[in-house]
């Protein structure tokens, strides 16, 4: 790959950093800040954010469909992306630096605006990346750079709010700092991408109606298999993500290590992306992903064997599983670009936006289900996440098993789905030949 081409890929991937930096705080820090620091009711905050997520779920298919149908001289991917940048940046600023007298209506309104802007930004951004190259391996390079920068953005989101704290809403706090950084970085890096990265060539030969498009999506068996595996693996990752803070605080008894261990996990994830790319180029994308999930399952299996205070051993587990999350982030999105080729060859319309809307919806559903599954199940064993009292041994054992062994079983199911995936480099080249040389 030439230096110019690599430079183009890196410039394309740059907006992934501010986009990732607003994602983690929105789900973890914002509820705590609005309830504890601003003094709003925790139930009201939860209800407002739930409404935002419902709106978000409705946004995905509409924006995906619109992003595929919009055609302007500026480019259908670049146009949607460009319009969404200022909306997303300003809404992030408003959410992360609210006035001290902000109400629940303030959170709900700006949360909905941010939800719309973020979705309108992310779907064409991912579709753009999928269409930048038709080559099987080059797509992995594109998603690898994008997801590596996504992880770096996540590290920034972890570090900045804690650098100056989030306890005083009347002063310039850590969440406000993050809001300012996102509000500046997203438009600047997005504008650089629009300026320097060409609009991908479109291979649409005929327009497809909504009903026919849905039928083609249903008939795309590799896509259905992939998104099922992606959902199951997303659920497997979402459960420990939901329970991580409780595992470190209650099971290991070291709440002061939550931040450092979380930072270590995502830092190793950055290193895992080139490893995933290396293995994928020597085997296949689906088999490399399978190896990564198998390795994560094996490592995670030791977690419930830890005892209180085993921070060093758990740090090793965090480092190794963090390394493997690079596989989960970079490889499935690259395979997704390949299964879109099946639809393009069959339907005659390049509908990457629609497919990544389904992808986005699957991600959100798996995270929501992880929360809805983990806490009620823990409650059956007497675990009380909102109490400062000592948890029972039964509750702690249940926490460890649900945290580690349940996700391990789910990952094995995802491995079974992708191990003999019916789309490899040779088949994908044949599809591209059909698309590009009808």
Commentary on this structure:
With about 450 residues, this protein is mainly α. It folds into 2 domains: about 200 residues, Growth Hormone, Chain: A (Up-down Bundle), CATH 1.20.1250.20; about 230 residues, MFS general substrate transporter like domains (Growth Hormone, Chain: A, Up-down Bundle), CATH 1.20.1250.20. The protein is built from 15 helices and no strands. The model has no long low-confidence stretch (mean pLDDT about 90).
Provide a short characterization of the protein structure.
With 438 residues, the chain is mainly α. It has helices at residues 3-13, 16-37, 42-69, 76-96, 104-131, 136-164, 174-196, 210-219, 221-251, 258-282, 285-300, 311-347, 352-380, 393-418, 425-436. The longest helix has 37 residues, at 311-347.
- How many helices does DSSP assign? 15
- Say which CATH homologous superfamily of the largest domain is assigned: MFS general substrate transporter like domains
Q: Which structural class should the secondary elements be placed in?
A: mainly alpha
Topology as a string of helices (H) and strands (E): HHHHHHHHHHHHHHH
N/C terminus separation: 27 Å
Mean pLDDT: 89
Estimated share of beta-strand residues: under 5%
According to CATH, what is the topology of the largest domain?
Growth Hormone, Chain: A
